[in-house]
Design goal:
The protein has one domain. It is built from nine helices and no strands. The protein has helices at 3-16, 21-29, 57-105, 112-121, 123-157, 161-202, 207-220, 222-264, 272-316.
């Protein structure tokens, strides 16, 4: 079975077993929110000059931060914990989705509850695989950050102009070198994880054996692997993410502009309570937009995981299901 057949059969399986889209929604949460880049500047020009901060406003903000810094710290830690739990939930859903795609590819109807239990039973393997494959990227990112910080410190602490310029040039060299290596490493680890996760789930291998199997299979099928990656992850998923990011910017801009007009359009002094309500409204709107975009990504993620599963089954020599059983 070639890539064209995998794409066609993957589309048929994705449309037939729409119940797997539930796992697709959860798995899409781990792919990140739409990447909305750029600077969004809003200016409201009126005949009145801009109003300054009310007297004592900066001091009031400082006092509030001094009094509520434990709450701020707990909020930051809570956001980190929530992000981690979200990634773990997405990894579990991806495992269940791969198992469901494997059942569908073998000609059997996937059932959500058994898939969830099987993915939970293999969850530690999936975590081990992702930790091993994510560690090099983490270390390289740490080197990148340390290089930038070190170069910046040399720039500000050095007394001679030549040393400052050398520190700045060193920081930029480290940044671009580490960034290039990080991008290449991320792509390699991503492809390796595609194969290793399926080895652990579809062949029921321990995580070390799954890593070995994924590496060996990837080296043997490097050409087909890169082609599948270009078509699915770069073409299908990448283009869809870009379009969603572009389309999500429009309602985000409209909502932000409306919120600014409602909370600050009247002019006058700015109060802390007004800023707080504006922040809550903006966060609530962004969360709703993120959830909607993730729901829209569900069938695309399900389709990509299904095609990758079909490809892995063919490369690993696993028995193929009868196409007639699906119709």
């Amino acid at each position: 079975m070639e890539l064209g057949e995998w794409l066609s059969r993957g589309l048929s399986l994705t449309w037939r077993y729409k119940s797997l889209w539930l796992f697709g929604v959860l798995a899409a949460l781990g792919t990140g929110a739409p990447r909305l880049s750029g600077n969004f500047n809003f200016s409201f020009r009126t005949s009145m000059p801009p109003q300054p901060w009310p007297p004592g406003f900066p001091e009031a903000v400082r006092r509030w931060l001094d009094q509520n810094w434990p709450l701020m710290l707990l909020t930051i830690l809570g956001l980190i914990a929530f992000s981690l739990l979200l990634q773990l939930l997405a990894l579990w859903a991806q495992g269940a989705l791969i198992l469901g795609a494997g059942e569908a590819a073998a000609g059997r109807s996937p059932q959500l509850a058994p898939l969830g239990r099987r993915a939970a039973a293999r969850f530690l393997r999936l975590i081990g695989i992702m930790i091993v494959l994510g560690a090099p990227g983490f270390l390289l990112t740490l080197i990148l950050v340390l290089g930038m910080v070190g170069g910046t410190l040399l720039f500000f602490l050095a007394r001679q102009e030549g040393a400052r310029i050398a520190g700045l040039v060193l920081a930029f060299l480290v940044f671009f070198l580490a960034l290039g290596c990080l991008l290449i490493l991320t792509a390699v680890m991503h492809l390796w994880s595609r194969l290793a996760l399926r080895a652990a789930l579809l062949e029921d291998l321990p995580w070390i054996a799954a890593l070995r199997q994924g590496l060996q299979l990837g080296l043997r099928r490097i050409g087909a692997l890169l082609l599948t990656w270009l078509v699915l992850d770069v073409g299908v998923l990448g283009v869809t993410e870009f379009l969603l990011s572009f389309l999500s910017a429009i309602p985000l801009l409209l909502f932000t502009g409306a919120a600014l007009a409602v909370f600050f359009g009247r002019g006058g002094p700015v109060e802390i309570s007004t800023m707080f309500r504006f922040g809550v409204a903006l966060i609530a709107g962004a969360l709703c937009l993120i959830l909607l975009s993730r729901a829209l990504m569900a069938p695309i993620v399900t389709y990509a995981e299904t095609v990758w599963t079909l490809a892995y089954r063919a490369w690993a020599g696993l028995p193929a299901g009868s196409a007639g059983e699906e119709d």
